[in-house]
């Protein structure tokens, strides 16, 4: 219910500004109409460019190998990073090249109403800028009128230019010279043209603002290009030139990179060739000085010779040892026969040994036949002794020969071993020279190969991109779209007043609607009093006409009756936060409304600092009252006065002006006074001072049954409700109810029910359908 009530309040509040909404929508729709009438229509020109995948291109093996190397991979695979190519396609450099080539900073057209219509291929003049005089060109529009076949008139207020000159003659301005060349068969006498000239940078920015390049798919390498331009044919030419210029720049970049790489390779080839010659010369010197033809074979031969001489040395040493042992054997006379199996590599010694063994053998045979004294045996002994001496001499001579041979073999063997020990160092030096020679040679051959590959790549006609769809314009303008423009205008027409109204509400600090009260406090609203257009303070009473204000007090009277029917007494205090909220006006008319039911009502004026109730009733302010009764200077029945023509209303005024109102209210005679007055009157209305200014109302609270807290529409501030909430939370004013005063019922925000036939219609001034939202 509360949510529906809040929604109704919001709708009613918005509907109260329906004229503003209608006016705003009308204005925006009108602006949209003017925009569509004078805006330059835009055509969409589109094309498709495919960035080729270099892996699928059928290049030669040499080119592919060259591309796979880090040297020219960027040259042969420009599509490897498609996002980079998108940046190139939308770069200022590329667009500026097209602007210069097509002279896009110069437009020739004519005026159609307030719109500039570019002629392009229908232009009778070809305009160029020559002899620029400044670095930064400001935009200028020249009026050109063709006077006759050979004369034109050129005007421009900014340049102070108004000249008649021959066609083809340069037009001198402060920034540059214009050259206007006629186009054959298109000159029309009396035709008026406009020549718009901007800087190249401004033209580039204009193209970039309406130019888009994006991938057709994340997995594809095709790029969709779109350009929005007011002239379809020139738009097609611009987009086509952008693609062609991109392809040309890519090709030129490939050639430039290849040329720079060829220069680098040639420099490296010269350096490597020089280094290779130096290494080969050093290797040749090393071979010559060390007599090296084939180091491996020579090393094998040297090791073989060393092994051979080593074996011969060991054989000689063995024979020398045998001869030494044999000599000792021969010198022993006990040893008769010498073994002939001993290997002695000496012919004379072998013959002597055989002769000696033969004599020993004859002697042993004949010893069996002869006695020791036999001359034959003696002769054999003498021969054996002589032959043994010869044998010892041969042994001695052979030993000397063996020693000489062994020494020579040992010397030769040491020489071979010395040469073998030098082989690793020579081989290491040889391998070092050979390695340097091999590396330099491989590098030289590699560079020669890469030079050929770079030459092939430079001469290759393979393109890194391909135009799939040529630039093509739409049949009709795509911008602006009337339906969208009108729809956006209508939406803006609603949003603007809606934003202003809500912004105003957001910034508003004063009480404006019932929702404000419900939002900031939960104190019950007991009454709602409309705005009183009359200057009369008494809004309800005998003889007064029925109005929305009087009906509001009657409704308040009814609500008050039900609120007080269970109370022992009917004392009501009326107060507010600050001055000006209408608490005294509320006290006066509430009391009158109660008295009209035949009840006896007493007004007590307890705003002792600024009493207004007496003067509002038309009585003199300088009459004795409450202060004199409390001070004992008068009795209550003597100072209570009747309120004019209403016999049921009486007033106990504040009394003479006093300086100590708080002390008066705290006097011991106040409580008995209220007890006495309760017995005499049906209702007592206490007009107290504002609680937000002084504390008097808190003192009075102990004597009353209910407090009516007055808030004033569009006067009471929102932050004051925090003070009201604090009063309720701490129960400083007892039972408290709110009354909203001075409501503008012609506005919105309060749910006020009809008070009788015709009043609501009169108050709101709205039609019946509008009032349905308020009930």
UniProtKB/TrEMBL annotation:
Keywords for the protein's UniProt record, in alphabetical order: ATP-binding, Kinase, Membrane, Nucleotide-binding, Transferase, Transmembrane, Transmembrane helix, Tyrosine-protein kinase
SUPFAM superfamilies xrefs: P-loop containing nucleoside triphosphate hydrolases
Domain AAA, first and last residues per copy: 570-691
Keyword Acetylation recorded: no
Reaction catalysis annotation: L-tyrosyl-[protein] + ATP = O-phospho-L-tyrosyl-[protein] + ADP + H(+)
Residues that span the membrane, as ranges: 20-38, 484-503
UniProt enzyme class: transferase
Domain (Tyrosine-protein kinase G-rich): residue spans on this chain: 427-501
Record EC number: 2.7.10.2
Claim: Kinase is one of the keywords in the record: yes
PANTHER family on file: FERRIC ENTEROBACTIN TRANSPORT PROTEIN FEPE, TYROSINE-PROTEIN KINASE
Family: Belongs to the CpsD/CapB family.
NCBIfam families in alphabetical order: eps_fam
The protein's name: non-specific protein-tyrosine kinase
Organism taxonomic ancestry: Bacteria, Pseudomonadati, Bacteroidota, Sphingobacteriia, Sphingobacteriales
């Amino acid at each position: 219910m509360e949510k529906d009530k809040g929604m109704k309040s919001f709708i009613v509040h918005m509907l109260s500004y329906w004229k503003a909404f209608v006016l705003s929508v009308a204005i925006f729709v009108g602006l949209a109409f003017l925009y569509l009438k004078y805006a330059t229509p835009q055509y969409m020109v589109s094309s498709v460019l495919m960035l080729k995948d270099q892996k699928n291109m059928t290049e030669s093996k040499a080119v592919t190998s060259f591309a796979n190397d880090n040297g020219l991979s960027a040259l042969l695979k420009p599509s490897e990073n498609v996002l980079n190519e998108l940046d190139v396609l939308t770069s200022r450099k590329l667009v500026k090249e097209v602007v210069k080539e097509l002279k896009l900073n110069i437009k020739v057209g004519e005026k159609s109403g307030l719109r500039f219509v570019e002629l392009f291929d229908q232009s009778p003049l070809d305009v160029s800028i020559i002899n620029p005089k400044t670095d930064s060109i400001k935009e200028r529009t020249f009026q050109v009128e063709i006077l006759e076949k050979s004369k034109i008139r050129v005007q421009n207020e900014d340049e102070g230019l108004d000249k008649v000159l021959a066609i083809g003659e340069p037009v001198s301005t402060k920034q540059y010279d214009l050259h206007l060349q006629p186009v054959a068969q298109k000159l029309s006498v009396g035709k008026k043209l406009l020549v718009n000239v901007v800087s190249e940078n401004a033209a580039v920015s204009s193209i970039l603002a309406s130019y888009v390049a994006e991938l057709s798919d994340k997995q594809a390498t095709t790029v969709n290009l779109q350009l929005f331009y007011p002239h379809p044919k020139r738009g097609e030419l611009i987009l086509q030139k952008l693609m062609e210029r991109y392809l040309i720049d890519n090709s030129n970049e490939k050639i430039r990179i290849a040329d720079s790489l060829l220069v680098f390779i040639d420099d490296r080839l010269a350096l490597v060739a020089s280094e290779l010659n130096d290494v080969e010369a050093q290797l040749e010197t090393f071979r010559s000085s060390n007599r090296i033809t084939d180091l491996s074979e020579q090393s094998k031969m040297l090791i073989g010779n060393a092994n051979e001489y080593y074996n011969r040395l060991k054989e000689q040493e063995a024979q020398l040892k045998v001869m030494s042992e044999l000599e000792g054997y021969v010198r022993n006379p006990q040893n008769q026969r010498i073994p002939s199996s001993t290997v002695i590599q000496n012919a004379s010694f072998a013959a002597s040994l055989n002769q000696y063994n033969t004599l020993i053998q004859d002697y042993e045979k004949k010893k069996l036949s002869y006695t020791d004294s036999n001359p034959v045996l003696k002769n054999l002994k003498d021969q054996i002794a002589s032959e043994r001496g010869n044998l010892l001499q041969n042994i001695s001579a052979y030993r000397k020969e063996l020693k000489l041979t062994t020494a020579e073999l040992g010397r030769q063997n040491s020489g071979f071993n010395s040469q073998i020990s030098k082989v690793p160092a020579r081989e290491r030096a040889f391998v070092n020279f050979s390695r340097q020679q091999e590396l330099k040679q491989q590098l030289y051959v590699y560079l020669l190969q890469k030079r050929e590959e770079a030459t092939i790549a430079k001469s290759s006609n393979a393109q890194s991109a391909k135009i799939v769809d040529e630039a093509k314009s739409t049949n009709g303008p795509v911008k602006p779209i009337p339906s969208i423009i009108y729809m956006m205008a209508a939406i803006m027409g609603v949003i603007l007043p809606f934003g202003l109204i809500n912004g105003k509400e957001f910034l508003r600090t004063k009480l404006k609607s019932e929702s404000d009260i419900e939002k900031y406090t939960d104190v019950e609203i007991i009454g709602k009093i409309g705005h009183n257009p009359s200057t009369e303070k008494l809004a309800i009473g005998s003889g007064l006409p029925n109005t929305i204000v009087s009906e509001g007090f009657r409704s308040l009277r009814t609500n008050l009756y039900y609120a007080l029917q269970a109370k022992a007494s009917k004392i009501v205090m009326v107060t507010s936060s600050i001055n000006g909220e209408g608490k005294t006006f509320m006290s006066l008319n509430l009391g009158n409304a109660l008295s009209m039911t035949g009840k006896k009502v007493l007004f007590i004026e307890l705003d002792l600092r600024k009493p207004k109730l007496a003067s509002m009733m038309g009585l003199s302010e300088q009459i004795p009252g409450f202060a004199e009764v409390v001070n004992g200077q008068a009795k209550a029945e003597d100072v209570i006065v009747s309120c004019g023509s209403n016999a049921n209303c009486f007033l106990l005024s504040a009394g003479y002006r006093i300086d100590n109102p708080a002390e008066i209210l705290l006097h011991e005679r106040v409580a008995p006074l209220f007890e006495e007055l309760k017995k005499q009157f049906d209702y007592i209305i206490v007009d107290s001072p504002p609680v937000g200014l002084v504390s008097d109302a808190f003192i009075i609270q102990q004597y009353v049954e209910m407090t009516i807290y007055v808030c004033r529409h569009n006067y009471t501030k929102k932050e004051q409700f925090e003070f009201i909430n604090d009063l309720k939370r701490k129960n400083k004013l007892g039972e408290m109810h709110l009354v909203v005063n001075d409501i503008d019922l012609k506005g919105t925000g309060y749910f006020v029910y009809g008070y009788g036939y015709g009043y609501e219609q009169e108050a709101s001034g709205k039609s019946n359908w509008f009032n349905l939202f308020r009930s």
